[in-house]
Amino acid sequence: MDRPIERIGDVATIIQGDALTVLRGLPGESVDAVVTDPPYSSGGMTLTARQADPATKYQHGSTKLSYPAMLGDNKDQRSFTTWATLWLTECWRMARDGAPLLVFTDWRQLPSTTDAVQAAGWLWRGLVVWHKPSARPLLGEFRRDAEFLVYAVKRKANPATRNCLPGVLRHSVNPAEKVHLTGKPVALLRDLLAVTQPGGLVLDPFTGGGTTGMACMATGRRFLGVELSPEYHRIAADRIAAAHRDALTME
Ligand SMILES: C[S@@+](CC[C@H](N)C(=O)[O-])C[C@H]1O[C@@H](n2cnc3c(N)ncnc32)[C@H](O)[C@@H]1O
User: Fold this and answer.
1) Shortest-distance Cα residue to atom 27 of ligand 1
2) Residue 60 pLDDT more than 90?
3) DSSP string for residues in 134-167
4) Backbone phi, then psi, for 170, in 5-degree steps?
5) Which residue's CA is the nearest one to ligand 1's atom 7?
6) How many angstroms separate the CA atoms of 161 and 205, rounded?
7) Distance of CA 235 to the CA centre of its chain
8) Lowest-confidence region among 47-51, 177-181, 197-201
């Protein structure tokens, strides 16, 4: 079946479709890194809570911004772990030896995500903490102002840098920059890409608003993305194309 595909020069390709189906049709040992932010299926300890509209689960306070619908964020714990193992296995097959993997997750889904990463064959190497100073305070409780990246490699690490990289990255969410309910700061992705090969091909099977791809354009990596939502596929392609043009004018 033909799928809508957006190509930006020879530096970025964004395919619209279901990640698992699309990845299964792509060649093995063809990407240099996997950096991705899947739907967490988080936001509650019960199935009903997890199946709530993401706009309700993930937005708090009185001012709620409106974004296109976020898809696929409704799995229970066991099906999330099984599903994550399936797509992470495809990512492992597509990765070259030594490729790093970075997968976003939150405190609820951290155990499932580390299980799935390892079950898929990746060698778990640690966590990166994304500290969000803008997170809301919680009366009488510890503030939940961190999300995590599960860091792993395919077989043996092939370091892309001789720098020592920090384990905690501090970036506020900038509402003016966000086009997606759970969009991540571009500056955070730029910092994360320091672990990937300059000029290498970075895979993000859950592209969303295209943040990983934009950071790739800004830092001289190539990008291969997949996104289920036709609306976000279009938005991501436009944003990545703009980031590519910006990078060219900076040269
Ligand atoms: C957490 S968001 C990614 C946000 C992105 N990092 C950003 O900064 O904009 C996850 C994305 O995965 C997409 N998605 C959900 N299920 C999918 C699937 N089966 N295949 C591909 N994309 C999927 C959702 O539509 C959503 O845009």
Assistant:
1) 208
2) no
3) TSPP-TTS----EEEEEEEESSS---S-SSPPPS
4) -110, 115
5) 183
6) 24
7) 16
8) 47-51
